[in-house]
Amino acid sequence: MPSAEAQLRAAPPHALVATARRLLAERVGALEVTLLLADYGLTVLQPVSHLPHTGEPVPAHEGPAGSAFVQQRPVVEILREPAGHLVHLPIAVRGDRLGVLCVRLPAGAADPDTVLQLGEFATALGHEVSTADRDTDLYLQARRTRRLTLAAEMQWQLLPARGSAREEYVIGAHLEPAYAIGGDNFDWSADADHLTLTVTDGMGKGIDAALLTSLAVGALRNARRAGLTLADQACLADQAVHAQYGGKAYASTLLLRFDLATGTVTAVDAGSPQLFRQRDGHTERIDLEAQFPLGMFEESEYTEQTFRVAPGDRLIVVSTGVHETRSAQGELFGEGALRQILSATRPAPPHEAARAVVSGLIEHHGSSELMSDAAVVCLDWHGRPR
Question: 1 pLDDT exceeds 70?
Protein backbone atom coordinates (compact mmCIF):
# COMPACT_ATOMS: atom_id res chain seq x y z
CA MET A 1 0.00 0.00 0.00
CA PRO A 2 1.38 3.47 -0.87
CA SER A 3 2.54 5.57 2.05
CA ALA A 4 0.38 8.40 3.37
CA GLU A 5 2.87 10.90 1.94
CA ALA A 6 2.64 9.27 -1.49
CA GLN A 7 -1.15 9.36 -1.42
CA LEU A 8 -1.15 13.03 -0.43
CA ARG A 9 1.22 13.79 -3.32
CA ALA A 10 -1.07 11.94 -5.72
CA ALA A 11 -4.22 13.74 -4.56
CA PRO A 12 -5.62 16.64 -6.63
CA PRO A 13 -4.56 19.94 -5.02
CA HIS A 14 -8.13 20.90 -4.08
CA ALA A 15 -8.76 17.49 -2.48
CA LEU A 16 -5.96 17.42 0.10
CA VAL A 17 -8.28 17.83 3.10
CA ALA A 18 -10.65 15.11 1.87
CA THR A 19 -7.68 12.81 1.26
CA ALA A 20 -6.31 13.55 4.74
CA ARG A 21 -9.69 12.69 6.29
CA ARG A 22 -9.81 9.36 4.47
CA LEU A 23 -6.23 8.40 5.29
CA LEU A 24 -6.48 9.28 8.98
CA ALA A 25 -9.81 7.47 9.32
CA GLU A 26 -8.23 4.33 7.86
CA ARG A 27 -4.95 4.49 9.77
CA VAL A 28 -5.74 5.88 13.22
CA GLY A 29 -9.53 5.76 13.36
CA ALA A 30 -9.96 9.53 13.11
CA LEU A 31 -13.57 10.62 13.53
CA GLU A 32 -13.07 14.17 12.29
CA VAL A 33 -10.23 16.08 10.59
CA THR A 34 -10.08 19.88 10.18
CA LEU A 35 -7.35 21.93 8.54
CA LEU A 36 -6.96 25.42 10.03
CA LEU A 37 -4.84 27.99 8.17
CA ALA A 38 -3.50 31.21 9.72
CA ASP A 39 -5.00 34.31 8.19
CA TYR A 40 -2.83 37.07 6.74
CA GLY A 41 -2.98 39.14 9.93
CA LEU A 42 -2.12 36.13 12.15
CA THR A 43 -5.17 36.83 14.29
CA VAL A 44 -7.32 33.76 13.57
CA LEU A 45 -7.07 30.23 12.23
CA GLN A 46 -9.49 29.69 9.36
CA PRO A 47 -11.00 26.24 8.62
CA VAL A 48 -10.58 25.08 5.03
CA SER A 49 -14.00 24.06 3.74
CA HIS A 50 -16.25 24.74 0.78
CA LEU A 51 -15.49 28.20 -0.57
CA PRO A 52 -16.45 30.99 -0.69
CA HIS A 53 -17.57 30.14 2.85
CA THR A 54 -15.31 28.76 5.56
CA GLY A 55 -16.20 27.43 8.97
CA GLU A 56 -16.08 29.49 12.16
CA PRO A 57 -12.50 30.75 12.74
CA VAL A 58 -10.71 30.17 16.06
CA PRO A 59 -8.22 32.53 17.74
CA ALA A 60 -4.64 32.08 16.59
CA HIS A 61 -3.18 32.78 20.05
CA GLU A 62 -5.77 31.35 22.45
CA GLY A 63 -7.27 27.96 23.19
CA PRO A 64 -5.83 24.53 22.33
CA ALA A 65 -5.45 25.22 18.59
CA GLY A 66 -3.86 28.63 19.26
CA SER A 67 -1.43 27.07 21.75
CA ALA A 68 -0.36 24.48 19.20
CA PHE A 69 0.17 27.23 16.62
CA VAL A 70 2.14 29.59 18.89
CA GLN A 71 4.20 26.97 20.71
CA GLN A 72 4.67 24.75 17.66
CA ARG A 73 3.99 21.54 19.53
CA PRO A 74 1.03 19.13 19.67
CA VAL A 75 -1.76 19.88 22.15
CA VAL A 76 -4.12 17.08 23.20
CA GLU A 77 -7.58 18.22 24.30
CA ILE A 78 -9.75 15.83 26.33
CA LEU A 79 -13.38 15.69 25.17
CA ARG A 80 -16.22 14.71 27.51
CA GLU A 81 -19.28 14.31 25.33
CA PRO A 82 -18.75 12.28 23.30
CA ALA A 83 -15.66 10.96 25.06
CA GLY A 84 -12.47 11.18 23.07
CA HIS A 85 -9.48 13.35 22.28
CA LEU A 86 -8.98 16.28 19.92
CA VAL A 87 -5.33 16.48 18.87
CA HIS A 88 -4.11 19.86 17.60
CA LEU A 89 -0.96 19.55 15.47
CA PRO A 90 1.08 22.54 14.25
CA ILE A 91 1.79 22.70 10.53
CA ALA A 92 5.02 24.39 9.48
CA VAL A 93 7.16 24.08 6.37
CA ARG A 94 10.86 24.81 6.89
CA GLY A 95 10.07 27.29 9.65
CA ASP A 96 7.07 28.93 7.95
CA ARG A 97 4.01 28.46 10.18
CA LEU A 98 0.93 27.64 8.08
CA GLY A 99 -1.68 26.56 10.60
CA VAL A 100 -2.97 23.63 12.64
CA LEU A 101 -4.38 20.19 11.82
CA CYS A 102 -7.12 19.14 14.27
CA VAL A 103 -7.85 15.41 14.52
CA ARG A 104 -10.64 13.96 16.70
CA LEU A 105 -9.88 10.46 17.96
CA PRO A 106 -11.92 7.91 19.96
CA ALA A 107 -11.28 7.67 23.70
CA GLY A 108 -7.95 6.04 24.46
CA ALA A 109 -6.57 6.42 20.92
CA ALA A 110 -4.33 9.44 21.54
CA ASP A 111 -1.29 7.52 22.75
CA PRO A 112 2.21 9.06 22.29
CA ASP A 113 3.04 6.94 19.24
CA THR A 114 -0.18 7.97 17.51
CA VAL A 115 0.40 11.66 18.31
CA LEU A 116 3.93 11.36 16.89
CA GLN A 117 2.56 9.71 13.76
CA LEU A 118 -0.04 12.46 13.40
CA GLY A 119 2.69 15.10 13.72
CA GLU A 120 4.62 13.58 10.84
CA PHE A 121 1.41 13.43 8.80
CA ALA A 122 0.70 17.12 9.52
CA THR A 123 4.17 18.07 8.28
CA ALA A 124 3.64 16.08 5.07
CA LEU A 125 0.25 17.75 4.57
CA GLY A 126 1.84 21.17 5.07
CA HIS A 127 4.35 20.55 2.30
CA GLU A 128 1.55 19.53 -0.05
CA VAL A 129 -0.54 22.60 0.83
CA SER A 130 2.44 24.84 0.05
CA THR A 131 2.95 23.09 -3.28
CA ALA A 132 -0.77 23.18 -4.07
CA ASP A 133 -0.79 26.99 -4.00
CA ARG A 134 0.81 26.87 -7.45
CA ASP A 135 -2.23 25.08 -8.89
CA THR A 136 -5.24 26.23 -6.87
CA ASP A 137 -6.44 29.34 -5.07
CA LEU A 138 -8.32 27.28 -2.48
CA TYR A 139 -5.82 27.61 0.39
CA LEU A 140 -4.94 31.23 -0.35
CA GLN A 141 -8.64 32.12 -0.30
CA ALA A 142 -9.26 30.16 2.88
CA ARG A 143 -6.67 32.27 4.72
CA ARG A 144 -8.63 35.50 4.16
CA THR A 145 -11.03 37.05 6.61
CA ARG A 146 -11.75 39.73 4.02
CA ARG A 147 -10.64 40.78 0.57
CA LEU A 148 -7.05 41.89 -0.01
CA THR A 149 -6.36 45.14 -1.84
CA LEU A 150 -4.69 44.70 -5.22
CA ALA A 151 -1.45 46.12 -3.82
CA ALA A 152 -1.55 43.64 -0.93
CA GLU A 153 -2.22 40.77 -3.35
CA MET A 154 0.92 41.71 -5.26
CA GLN A 155 3.02 42.05 -2.11
CA TRP A 156 2.02 38.73 -0.55
CA GLN A 157 2.80 36.94 -3.80
CA LEU A 158 6.22 38.62 -3.81
CA LEU A 159 7.16 37.43 -0.30
CA PRO A 160 9.19 34.23 0.16
CA ALA A 161 7.21 33.16 3.28
CA ARG A 162 6.65 34.47 6.82
CA GLY A 163 9.42 32.44 8.36
CA SER A 164 12.39 30.20 7.71
CA ALA A 165 14.45 27.86 9.87
CA ARG A 166 17.75 26.08 9.55
CA GLU A 167 20.32 24.74 11.96
CA GLU A 168 22.13 28.10 11.99
CA TYR A 169 19.14 30.48 12.33
CA VAL A 170 15.39 30.98 12.71
CA ILE A 171 13.54 33.86 11.00
CA GLY A 172 10.08 35.19 11.81
CA ALA A 173 8.49 38.17 10.03
CA HIS A 174 5.27 40.15 10.12
CA LEU A 175 3.56 42.79 7.94
CA GLU A 176 0.73 45.22 8.67
CA PRO A 177 -1.77 46.33 7.55
CA ALA A 178 -1.90 42.74 6.31
CA TYR A 179 -4.89 43.18 4.02
CA ALA A 180 -3.81 46.55 2.60
CA ILE A 181 0.01 46.40 2.59
CA GLY A 182 1.61 48.42 -0.20
CA GLY A 183 5.35 49.04 -0.29
CA ASP A 184 7.00 47.04 2.51
CA ASN A 185 8.72 43.76 1.74
CA PHE A 186 11.16 41.26 3.20
CA ASP A 187 13.09 38.66 1.25
CA TRP A 188 15.69 35.99 1.92
CA SER A 189 17.62 33.21 0.26
CA ALA A 190 20.17 30.73 1.59
CA ASP A 191 22.68 28.34 0.08
CA ALA A 192 25.13 25.98 1.74
CA ASP A 193 27.25 28.72 3.32
CA HIS A 194 25.40 32.05 3.17
CA LEU A 195 22.06 33.68 3.96
CA THR A 196 21.02 36.89 2.21
CA LEU A 197 18.26 38.92 3.87
CA THR A 198 16.72 42.18 2.63
CA VAL A 199 14.01 44.49 3.98
CA THR A 200 12.62 47.01 1.49
CA ASP A 201 10.30 49.97 1.93
CA GLY A 202 8.97 51.34 -1.35
CA MET A 203 8.02 55.01 -1.41
CA GLY A 204 4.34 55.94 -1.62
CA LYS A 205 1.12 54.04 -0.96
CA GLY A 206 -1.09 51.43 -2.54
CA ILE A 207 -0.51 50.18 -6.06
CA ASP A 208 2.23 52.76 -6.79
CA ALA A 209 4.27 51.54 -3.82
CA ALA A 210 3.63 47.90 -4.72
CA LEU A 211 4.87 48.38 -8.29
CA LEU A 212 7.98 50.22 -7.09
CA THR A 213 8.81 47.54 -4.52
CA SER A 214 8.20 44.75 -7.02
CA LEU A 215 10.75 46.33 -9.35
CA ALA A 216 13.31 46.85 -6.58
CA VAL A 217 12.95 43.32 -5.18
CA GLY A 218 13.02 41.80 -8.66
CA ALA A 219 16.22 43.68 -9.46
CA LEU A 220 17.83 42.62 -6.17
CA ARG A 221 16.93 38.99 -6.82
CA ASN A 222 18.25 39.18 -10.38
CA ALA A 223 21.58 40.54 -9.16
CA ARG A 224 21.77 38.07 -6.27
CA ARG A 225 21.13 35.12 -8.58
CA ALA A 226 23.85 36.39 -10.92
CA GLY A 227 26.32 35.96 -8.05
CA LEU A 228 27.05 39.68 -7.56
CA THR A 229 28.36 41.11 -4.29
CA LEU A 230 25.97 42.82 -1.91
CA ALA A 231 27.19 46.28 -2.97
CA ASP A 232 26.75 45.39 -6.64
CA GLN A 233 23.27 44.04 -5.94
CA ALA A 234 22.37 47.45 -4.53
CA CYS A 235 23.96 49.21 -7.53
CA LEU A 236 22.04 47.16 -10.08
CA ALA A 237 18.72 47.65 -8.25
CA ASP A 238 19.47 51.37 -7.90
CA GLN A 239 19.99 51.66 -11.66
CA ALA A 240 16.82 49.71 -12.43
CA VAL A 241 14.65 51.87 -10.16
CA HIS A 242 16.20 55.15 -11.37
CA ALA A 243 15.81 54.14 -15.01
CA GLN A 244 12.09 53.62 -14.42
CA TYR A 245 11.30 56.54 -12.12
CA GLY A 246 14.06 59.08 -12.79
CA GLY A 247 14.59 59.84 -9.09
CA LYS A 248 10.94 60.75 -8.46
CA ALA A 249 10.39 57.55 -6.49
CA TYR A 250 12.83 55.33 -4.62
CA ALA A 251 13.02 52.33 -2.31
CA SER A 252 14.79 52.25 1.06
CA THR A 253 16.51 48.90 1.56
CA LEU A 254 18.68 47.13 4.10
CA LEU A 255 20.78 44.30 2.67
CA LEU A 256 22.45 41.71 4.93
CA ARG A 257 24.58 38.69 3.98
CA PHE A 258 25.47 36.18 6.69
CA ASP A 259 28.43 33.81 6.56
CA LEU A 260 26.84 30.75 8.14
CA ALA A 261 30.16 29.29 9.25
CA THR A 262 31.67 32.36 10.95
CA GLY A 263 28.77 34.68 11.83
CA THR A 264 30.31 37.55 9.84
CA VAL A 265 27.59 39.81 8.43
CA THR A 266 28.10 42.04 5.39
CA ALA A 267 25.67 44.97 5.26
CA VAL A 268 24.55 47.76 2.93
CA ASP A 269 22.20 50.36 4.41
CA ALA A 270 20.45 51.96 1.43
CA GLY A 271 17.79 53.94 3.22
CA SER A 272 15.85 53.89 6.44
CA PRO A 273 15.14 50.37 7.80
CA GLN A 274 16.70 50.14 11.27
CA LEU A 275 18.64 47.22 12.73
CA PHE A 276 18.79 46.18 16.39
CA ARG A 277 20.75 43.43 18.14
CA GLN A 278 19.90 41.75 21.44
CA ARG A 279 22.80 40.14 23.26
CA ASP A 280 23.23 39.10 26.90
CA GLY A 281 20.14 40.98 28.02
CA HIS A 282 21.05 44.22 26.24
CA THR A 283 19.38 45.79 23.21
CA GLU A 284 21.49 48.00 20.98
CA ARG A 285 20.95 49.65 17.64
CA ILE A 286 23.57 48.72 15.06
CA ASP A 287 24.54 51.98 13.39
CA LEU A 288 25.43 51.51 9.75
CA GLU A 289 26.59 54.09 7.23
CA ALA A 290 23.43 55.62 5.78
CA GLN A 291 23.60 55.53 1.98
CA PHE A 292 21.15 56.69 -0.68
CA PRO A 293 17.90 54.74 -1.17
CA LEU A 294 17.67 52.71 -4.35
CA GLY A 295 16.78 54.90 -7.32
CA MET A 296 17.17 58.30 -5.64
CA PHE A 297 20.16 59.31 -7.79
CA GLU A 298 21.61 57.98 -11.01
CA GLU A 299 24.41 55.40 -10.66
CA SER A 300 24.89 55.66 -6.90
CA GLU A 301 27.86 53.79 -5.50
CA TYR A 302 27.38 51.57 -2.45
CA THR A 303 29.93 50.33 0.06
CA GLU A 304 29.75 47.32 2.34
CA GLN A 305 30.29 47.17 6.09
CA THR A 306 30.75 44.16 8.33
CA PHE A 307 29.87 43.16 11.86
CA ARG A 308 29.56 39.82 13.66
CA VAL A 309 26.80 37.88 15.31
CA ALA A 310 27.36 35.32 18.04
CA PRO A 311 25.29 32.27 19.00
CA GLY A 312 22.34 33.48 21.09
CA ASP A 313 22.08 36.86 19.34
CA ARG A 314 18.75 38.16 18.07
CA LEU A 315 18.61 40.68 15.21
CA ILE A 316 15.48 42.76 14.55
CA VAL A 317 14.91 44.85 11.42
CA VAL A 318 12.08 47.40 11.40
CA SER A 319 10.86 49.47 8.48
CA THR A 320 10.10 53.20 8.46
CA GLY A 321 6.45 52.48 9.19
CA VAL A 322 7.52 51.13 12.59
CA HIS A 323 10.09 53.59 13.91
CA GLU A 324 8.43 56.72 12.48
CA THR A 325 4.77 56.03 13.35
CA ARG A 326 3.02 58.62 15.54
CA SER A 327 0.09 58.30 17.92
CA ALA A 328 -3.11 60.32 17.64
CA GLN A 329 -1.43 62.88 19.90
CA GLY A 330 1.56 63.13 17.58
CA GLU A 331 3.95 61.14 19.78
CA LEU A 332 6.59 59.19 17.87
CA PHE A 333 6.66 55.43 18.49
CA GLY A 334 10.39 55.83 18.76
CA GLU A 335 13.32 53.73 19.84
CA GLY A 336 12.42 53.75 23.55
CA ALA A 337 9.04 52.04 23.07
CA LEU A 338 10.58 49.64 20.58
CA ARG A 339 13.32 48.65 23.02
CA GLN A 340 10.75 47.95 25.73
CA ILE A 341 8.78 45.61 23.48
CA LEU A 342 11.94 43.87 22.28
CA SER A 343 13.08 43.29 25.86
CA ALA A 344 9.68 41.98 26.95
CA THR A 345 9.50 39.55 24.01
CA ARG A 346 13.07 38.21 24.24
CA PRO A 347 11.95 34.76 25.51
CA ALA A 348 9.37 34.44 22.72
CA PRO A 349 10.21 32.79 19.39
CA PRO A 350 11.03 35.11 16.45
CA HIS A 351 7.56 34.84 14.89
CA GLU A 352 5.87 36.00 18.08
CA ALA A 353 8.45 38.71 18.74
CA ALA A 354 7.87 40.20 15.27
CA ARG A 355 4.09 40.09 15.76
CA ALA A 356 4.39 41.67 19.22
CA VAL A 357 6.30 44.65 17.81
CA VAL A 358 3.54 45.31 15.29
CA SER A 359 0.86 44.82 17.97
CA GLY A 360 2.64 47.39 20.17
CA LEU A 361 2.81 49.75 17.21
CA ILE A 362 -0.94 49.42 16.60
CA GLU A 363 -1.65 50.06 20.28
CA HIS A 364 0.55 53.16 20.19
CA HIS A 365 -1.13 54.40 17.02
CA GLY A 366 -4.56 53.78 18.52
CA SER A 367 -5.93 52.01 15.44
CA SER A 368 -5.20 49.00 13.25
CA GLU A 369 -5.52 51.34 10.25
CA LEU A 370 -1.86 52.33 10.16
CA MET A 371 -0.88 55.38 8.12
CA SER A 372 2.23 53.59 6.78
CA ASP A 373 3.16 49.98 6.11
CA ALA A 374 5.04 48.26 8.91
CA ALA A 375 7.47 45.37 8.41
CA VAL A 376 9.37 43.57 11.17
CA VAL A 377 11.89 40.76 10.67
CA CYS A 378 13.32 38.92 13.67
CA LEU A 379 16.29 36.53 13.32
CA ASP A 380 17.66 34.28 16.06
CA TRP A 381 21.25 33.29 15.38
CA HIS A 382 22.41 29.85 16.55
CA GLY A 383 25.54 29.54 14.45
CA ARG A 384 26.99 26.44 12.91
CA PRO A 385 28.18 23.75 15.33
CA ARG A 386 31.89 23.24 15.17
Answer: no
